[in-house]
Design a protein that fits this description.
Layout (H helix, E strand, L loop, with lengths): L17 H24 L15 H14 L7 H10 L8 H8 L4 H13 L8 E10 L6 H6 L10 E9 L5 E8 L4 H12 L7 E4 L6 H9 L3 E4 L14 H12 L1 H8 L3 H14 L8 H26 L6 H7 L15
Parallel strand pairs: 1-4, 4-5
Antiparallel strand pairs: 1-2, 2-3
Helix pairs in contact: 1-2, 1-12, 2-12, 5-12, 9-10, 11-12
Length: about 350
Amino acid sequence: MTETQIRLPVETKYKQKWHAYNLAKTNEKRMFYTLLYELCSIIPEPKYNFGRPPVPIKDLIFSLGLKLYSNYSGRKIISDLFHAKQAGYVSRTVHYNTLTDFLNSEELYGLLQKLLIISALPLKTLEDQYSLDASGFGSYQYERWMRTRFSKSYSINSRNYLKGHVCIGTRTNIIASCEVTYGNFSDVKQAPNLLKQVKGRFNVKEVSADKGYDSNKLVQIIEEMGAIPYILFKDNRNPDPRKSPEIIVKMHRYFKNNKEEYLKKYHRRSNVETTFSMIKLRLGEFLKCKNYTSQRNELVMKFICHNICCLIQEIFESDININFKNELLTISDRKVGDSFFEEDF
């Protein structure tokens, strides 16, 4: 029998649950308001001492999330915020200049990272395979990632974009942790911090990543988490059993002897590309803010908006229940959930 006559088994294709999908999309905007409000409600407000009463932080973050989800400018979002106030989602309509000043706060970045983690926790029972990757977001409207990524006329130092580093669940495309850096920062150097944010909070059994993450240190970190690393080895990789860590030698042997099976597990990382595509199509592929601090906060807030959309999808497809307050208690050191946010205030 010739090679062309051999009939390979046809893999079962993913079947879209169209009824659940349609319900999720037709109810998304309404449920986005509710879930964003519930997420913002767990934020403790700083102690008020004297002077003019500040705008509640939960109102500011709700307004910011609604702005980015709607893809409107600060001025155009005021009408939506007026309706949000009438519905009880915010206590006041925030001025667009106040939103801009809030985005320029350096302390906001850490708070948004924590909100991102909490927004992903309701799906922790559905995920045990995670993947790492990064993608660029143009820092102005005409800076496209595909152009800066592949154009030979752009040097690394002249690329005007930020890079979002993420760890996602490969089944639901939920973002479990993130870091945002300048465009010329190394992907592999951000990976340990991404895994640190995930460790102990999610059930991580496998971690996949491309050649850019082929690092002895990173593979050992994944092993210490109790997970199996499926990282594509570089072409010239030939670890010495006498000098290299045991896990590197073991996984390289597995890669050489069972290449098809290894690559099948590795290619779960392709869902990271899907995740970035979802974010850029729904929320835009460029950042509207003008400086690094505000752009970084804007991008993390986009990731949070993406997570809320994933939660809505799984409410209909997997019948999950969402309670952000309970999730906060599970990762807090004390019974009072405020401890997770303690260093932010």
